[in-house]
């Protein structure tokens, strides 16, 4: 039995429309973020999880990277750092690996969210902020504490959302 999925569906017109809707959802939800530039909380992870669930790791990563660049062009032209695009793509890829074509369980959701929070949010984003000039020693602990607090919250919200989607998926 395969634990992770490394496949993505074919890119049909219907899938492109669904992906575009999820990309728009991610941009809109990303506008509702709050916090400091190095410690933000945002509901945009819902769209990223759904992209991974429906489109697998490769299409979700590509869509998330494209979406990150689109949102930078729309909302903050000139303030582009490609590291954040890599973090976004890795997060979508991890969600796709854990959820695409797999049964949603609490353990699977906890592992997926935990891996994204650790790899993308704590390690990589702190590295990118350090490269941009924010000393990592001053931000690593607040960022770690924030992500540890967010782990059960995002896991519960993700699990509830994906279980609801799992019930209606055959009707899409």
From TrEMBL:
TM helices/strands, residue ranges: 16-34, 41-61, 81-98, 110-131
Transmembrane helix listed as a keyword: yes
GO molecular function, one term: transmembrane transporter activity
InterPro entries per record: ECF_S_folate_fam, ECF_trnsprt_substrate-spec
Family annotation (Pfam families): ECF_trnsprt
Cleaved signal peptide residues: none
Key words of the record: Membrane, Transmembrane, Transmembrane helix
Protein name (database record): Folate transporter FolT
Species, as recorded: Lacticaseibacillus paracasei subsp. paracasei Lpp123
């Amino acid at each position: 039995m395969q634990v992770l999925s490394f496949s993505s569906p074919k890119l049909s017109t219907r899938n492109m429309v669904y992906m575009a809707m999820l990309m728009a959802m991610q941009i809109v939800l990303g506008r509702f973020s709050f916090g400091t530039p190095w410690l933000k909380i945002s509901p945009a992870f819902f769209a990223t999880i759904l992209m991974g669930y429906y489109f697998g790791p490769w299409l979700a990563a590509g869509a998330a990277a494209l979406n990150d660049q689109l949102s930078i062009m729309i909302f903050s032209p000139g303030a582009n750092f490609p590291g954040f695009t890599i973090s976004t793509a890795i997060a979508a890829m991890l969600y796709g690996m854990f959820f695409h074509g797999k049964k949603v369980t609490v353990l699977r959701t906890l592992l997926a969210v935990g891996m994204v929070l650790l790899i993308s949010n704590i390690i990589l984003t702190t590295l990118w902020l350090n490269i941009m000039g924010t000393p990592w020693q001053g931000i690593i602990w607040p960022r770690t504490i924030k992500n540890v607090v967010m782990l059960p919250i995002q896991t519960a919200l993700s699990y509830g959302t994906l279980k609801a989607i799992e019930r209606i998926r055959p009707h899409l």
